[in-house]
Amino acid sequence: MPNLLQDWVTLQAEHRPGELAVVCDSQALTYADLERVSNRLARLLRESGCRKGDRVCLLLPKRPEAIAAILAIYKAGCIYVPLDPSSPAARLTKIINACSSRFILAGARIAEWLQSECAWELAPSEIAIGWMEADQPALPHLHPAFTLSDLDSASPEPLDQLTRRGDPAHILFTSGSTGIPKGVIITHDNVIQFIEWAVRYFDIAPDDRNAGHPPLSFDLSFLDIFGTFAAGAELHPVPTEINVDPANIAQFIRDRELTQWFSVPSVLHYMAKFDVLGWNDFPRLKRVLWCGEVLPTSTLIYWMKRLPHVQFTNLYGPTETTIASSYYTVPECPHDQLAEIPIGTACDGEELLILDDNLQAVPAGVTGRLYIRGAGLSQGYWNDPEATARAFVPDPFSSDPSERIYNTGDLARRGGDGLVYFLGRNDSQIKSRGYRIELGEIEAALNSLAEVRESAVVALNGGENDTALICCAYVPAAGIHLSPAALRKALSRLVPNYMLPVRWRVLDLLPKNGSGKIDRRALKEEFSRYETSATVCGSPAPRELKMSD
Description:
disordered C terminus, Rossmann fold, alpha/beta
């Protein structure tokens, strides 16, 4: 049993040194290679002044050196802070400031950041940079603590471990309501307990070839990386340039003969809407997993009909509870496109609690607020005790005052089958025209329509008598002209009149955040900005919304 996350690679390097660990188009590392490179890089970090508990930011695309860098940060006794290379420079600066990092492992992307005005909100002399490129940086004022070429001169022998299993492994920054990203602290123990469950449940084995689709800054990536290493399998990072290209993703699965695919639902939805799967496609694929949002049942039906040999599992869990807290493997292809897919039952060591406003358990069938407790619970938010106290509240069912439960902000109910059903966010259940409405129900109906590639429904305040205004943004299926009036008519066959949106936008692409989820805040801002032109009968020119910070 590993004590720390990096121990899985060390064990594989001892027992299966020549087996492939990370495979990219132009480069592959065996477990022995990965162990050796990460040991050398860990030494360079220590020699550059990194000490136990220091936050080391990583600003690299998904490639073998990035995976080795994550391991090296752990081996040096430091805390890994992933930065999304696609993020605006201003947001990168906010994260670096928030975690008080003074060391960055980076490549060419750092040059663009350093040339931005917001980078100089930090004192450049206090920022040490490990340059993860073979060539020297082009910026004359940038003097790295070390470069990739220094690896060869560093010792490949392992360092003494300074970290304990309960220590922080990484800090994952999510959007904050104040505009300042919130850093979620996740320990080695949090991840190890989940990975050990996942490897057992999914029977991940050395002959598996697992995709690495999510960005390294997204918590789903830890299942891809460490689920692979725990089993001694192969990790195949998906190139960033094809991340949202349905046809190329499908070809990647075929060419790499992948056995496991894990992503947010929007990727699966796009692949279905563009009809890129053949019948009995991907013959080596064993498992498809999704997490992060609701997968339209119509999309699930598409996948399950074409891939009858594949196991499909819905995972649920916020970043604050480590990757996922519950699971549901779909036993058979649903017959109804509007059928609910449960989030299922808790993973080992976790517990899902459905409580009322007084933190008392509600009966089966009754909607309540979803709380989580157990092995995956984060220590809280980095340097933000107030936000931590609001989200992580004392466990009302424990006599130990230190025990906490996490308020997910989601609504759920327990069905008569004992399974838990996700019903949306607390703030996505609205009152309109006197009715209580769950926006997710409207989205599910929209996404079941063949004419719609993807859609999102948000609500604005400010209607008559404080009634919420339901707004819909959608992307028509390829080659289809779909006016708001036509879509409203089609939707009216599926939901009551009081659920029909009153404002509409037709777009080329829905805005996404860095994790690939729909950016609902950007949509709300869009509808607020264009409320005079967003009408039931109008059909504004298609346009793309930009991702908000």
